[in-house]
């Protein structure tokens, strides 16, 4: 299932068009590549983004049906990490602090312009607002997670996720098996971690179930005692 194009605007980076496909947030690849300063956007998309992370979809833009390459979050980060330009860091901050949270928290945002550039009428804006409010209420009724991912905990210590996991491995706190991190056997009964399940769908509609380890409040306190209090 594909949603209509929505537009986020930045004075620095211009317009970034987004949509959702099978409940995954997608970005128009050309917009992202342009914002990151790639001079040859088709080459950047071809060289840096895996085929599994991009998809060609048809949208009505400027009154015409056009084929557009869209990318998922993995493709987005691939372009960011491959960019050598100084605006890459600022672009990542804008996307992660404004664009993605707004889509995730409200199911979208309330634009005043359509994808074809025309101003939306008050009625159209209200209809979109009603849809977003309904989705927000649904999300508020879902149970909240009470654990933190390794990425979230690592940030409190000003570490990358890779370094964080490597340090815990070297300290004997966790080990990696079959591509997954696991708490050490001698710590398994202390309620330091909890498995979380994430269900997603590929761009072809195939269901993917990912089970991964997260840290409880007791686990974070334990890490504080081992690593020193984090830098909040």
Automatic annotation (TrEMBL):
All copies of domain Bro-N, residue ranges: 2-107
GO molecular-function terms, A-Z: DNA binding
Protein name in UniProt: Bro-N domain-containing protein
Organism expressing this protein natively: Xylanibacter ruminicola (Prevotella ruminicola)
